[in-house]
Each structure stands twice: as C-alpha cells, then as structure tokens.
Amino acid sequence: MRLMLGVVLSGLLVAAPIASAQTVDEVEIKVGPYELAANGAEKAMGGWRSTGPVTVGTSVVGVFSMRDCGSFTITVPPNTFEEDATAGWRVEVTPTRIVNHAVTFRLRWLRALDKGQGLSPASEDVEVTLRPGESRPLDSVPVAASTAKTADGRPCTRKAVSLRVVADFPDMDRRLIGADVWLVERLPNGKEQSQRQSLRGLPHRPIAFYFDGVADGTRRVDIFGKLVADPEQEGMEMTVETVRAGADPGQDGYQSARWFRSTLHVKPEEIVDVALPSDAKNDVLVNRVFSIRIQAKRIR
Amino acid sequence: MSSNHDVISAFLDDQPFELDELADTLNDPAGRALLIDLIALRRIVQPTEAAPAMGAAGRPWRRPWQYAAAAAVLLVALGGGYLVGERRAVTTSSEAPPPTRVVEAVPFTPTGGLR
C-alpha cells in the first residue's frame, strides 16, 4: 500500500510540470523595436521575436542588435550581436501562468552591448502580466546624429529607439467568424420589426455593427456596437457591447448614450436575443423597446 | 447562368464551344435542367416537317396548339423563376428569426475601449 502511494505521488510530481509545460494559449508574447520619430510619434519598426502560441514554462530568447540610425537586426542564440552593432540586448521571456488570456511571464533583459554612447548598463528581471493588446517598454536609447540613412535610403530622422514587449493574438489567423445580427424592435401590437447586418471578422478581434437610425419626428436613436468572438470547444464565447445613443439634433454628435455589455456562450445554430433595458430618465425614444438578436458560427 | 446558357445554346445550335466548359456546365444540376428545358422548348417551337417552299408562304408553318404550348412553357418558366427568386429573397430578408434564448444586457459606463 505504501509502495502504491509512493508510486502515485511520484507520478503526480512528474506529471505536474509536464502538464503545466503543455498549457498552450493562442495569445503570443513578442518583443520588438520601436522608433521615436522626429515628430514625437512612436511606432513599431516591424521586426519581432515572438513566442508563438504561449506555452507555460518554455523560455524564448531574442538577441537584438542596433546599428546606425537605429536600424535593428534580430537573431537567436547561439548567434550573438552584429559586428557593427552600437548597442545590443538579450531578452528572455518565460511564461508562467495564463488566466483568461492574461499571460504572466518572467521577463529578463540585459543591454549587454553599448559602444560609445556612455550609457549606464541596464537590465531587469521582473514578473509581468499582460492582457491581449497590452504592452510594456523595456529599454530606450537615443539615436546618435549621423549621416547614416534608413534602409530605404531616406535621411535618418529617428531620435530614439526602444524595445517593447507586447501580448496579443496572432494577426494571421485563418479562422473566420460569421454572425447575423438583427436590431429587433418590439412593437406595441406585439409584432417585431427588424433590420439585419451580416458580419465577418477574426476571432478575438472586435467586429463592429451599425444599424440604421430609428427616428420619431426630429428625435433619433442610433444603435451600434461591436462583438468579440472567442472560439470554444463547442461554439464560442461572445462579448457584445451595444450603444444606444440619442442624436443631437442638427449636430454630428450625440446628446446622450447608454452602454450595454453581455457575455454569451453561443452554440452553433443557437439564436440569442439580447434585450436592451429601457431607462425612462436617460433614453431618447424611451417607449421604443429594442434588442439585439445574434446567430454566429465559425465559417472556417 | 448566362455562361451556362451560352455554352448549351452553342452546343444545340452546332456552334463552336469549349468541351470542358460544357462538361462543367452539365456537372451542375442547374445546367442539366437548363439543357432539358432548352431541348423541350426547341422541340415545341421548331417545325417537325421540312420548311415550306416559298410558294406556300401564305400558310402558317406552326399549328395554333404549338403556339399555346410554347406560351405555356414560357409562363411556367417565368412563374418558376419568380417563385425561386421570391423564396431566395425571403431567406435573405431582414426579418429576425425567433430566438432560442433570451438574455438581458447589463448597462455599464465605459472607462476604456473594448479590446
């Protein structure tokens, strides 16, 4: 009996790290260079070192070399910095936990190469949690004025470059979500009046919808919003945000608006009606009762 | 549809056509139905006997029942097309289907954008 218990415990201890190491999420963590242009705008320069779909316990290392005019090359160990690099970083990301697409990871980075700028050594070893779409800066260095040009031959206007770590869903996702969305108005006689929109979009990305405005004399209500579909084992989780906004007469804006949110688990072929509760104090056309009706499926 | 019609018409009229295109068209049930319709229509509207000599031009070369049959086929085709079109229009109408589940949205005050 004692032997059996020992075997079971040993099995659990061995299996636990294996199980955690196999936890995979669609979110990816990527580290890449950003440039600070002469006009003050920061934008991604385009190269990334990515984890791919995050696997808990699996480290990913990137080696970043900066050259003249802040141009970057990215490689992986055992490769080292470029010979003509003026600054270089080693960045290591180790995911440790994923909860509802929020990724917690250990971030270790070191500016291991610095030629001639007199910058103090910099490094960090921190735990970071990012939700999809969030990012965090690592390090930033000024770009020395020089006659060097950019890769496409233009004069160098970069003032500084930085490294930033980003969590997000992959851009190139072949899956496609399709949804029919109706704005349904329940009439006093019990009948329904509706208008439909057919939507398509990527998983995890907002898909916007805008219905035609509903008018009564000079008063007008616009109903619009966006939905985000997260595929599940069977069907999908769908977050629906809807805005019911009263138009400002004669203006392009709104004089009032109310926001609604719903999180649904939608099975294939299911048609869900999301009622928008009325508010006598804040609604324009308060006697008009609306709902959003949704049928969604994965197209591919 | 017009491409299907063209290749089948060319085939029936002994005009040049692409064999592969005809084969593709006949692989489609709609293409086969179109071929049968056109053959039937031509059998009805074309004369069963040799063309009359010029001297007999004053005599009508089709009998009245043939005109009636052609008109009937035309009416059936038009009516069928209308019904099919109407059915398709219904399936793409804006009328909302009945829900299988009803939930109530929760009002909130936004503090940031949806991801």
Could you explain the architecture of this structure?
The complex is a heterodimer of chains A (300) and B (115). Chain A is mainly beta. Helix content of chain A is 7%, strand content 55%. Chain A has 2 domains: 24-168, no CATH class; 177-298. In chain A, the strands form 4 sheets. In chain A, strands 1, 2, 3, 9 and 10 form a 5-stranded antiparallel beta sheet that branches. The longest helix of chain A has 20 residues, at 2-21. Mean pLDDT of chain A is 87; it is low at 1-21. Chain B is mostly helical and 115 residues long. Among the domains of chain B are: 1-47, no CATH class; 62-92. Chain B is 57% helix and 6% strand. Chain B contains 4 helices and 2 strands; from the N terminus they run ααααββ. Chain B has helices at residues 2-12, 19-27, 29-45, 64-91; strands at 101-104, 106-108. The chains are: A mainly beta (300), B mainly alpha (115). The interface between A and B is medium-sized, with 36 and 20 residues.
**Assembly of the depicted chains:** heterodimer
Secondary-structure content class of chain B: mainly alpha
Largest sheet of chain A: 5 strands, antiparallel
| Cα separation of the termini of chain B | 44 Å
Number of strand segments of chain B: 2
Radius of gyration of chain A: 26 Å
Q: What general form of chain A does the structure show?
A: elongated
Low-confidence stretches of chain A: 1-21
Q: Profile the largest sheet of chain B.
A: none
Structural class of chain A: mainly beta
The helix tally of chain B amounts to 4
The helix fraction of chain B, in percent, is 55-70%
Distance between the termini of chain A: 52 Å
Round the Cα radius of gyration of chain B to an integer and report it: 26 Å
Give the H and E element order of chain B: HHHHEE
Helix content range of the residues of chain A, please? under 10%
Unreliable sequence segments of chain B: 51-58, 88-92
Shape summary of chain B:
elongated
Strand content of chain B: 5-15%
Largest interface: A-B, 36 and 20 residues
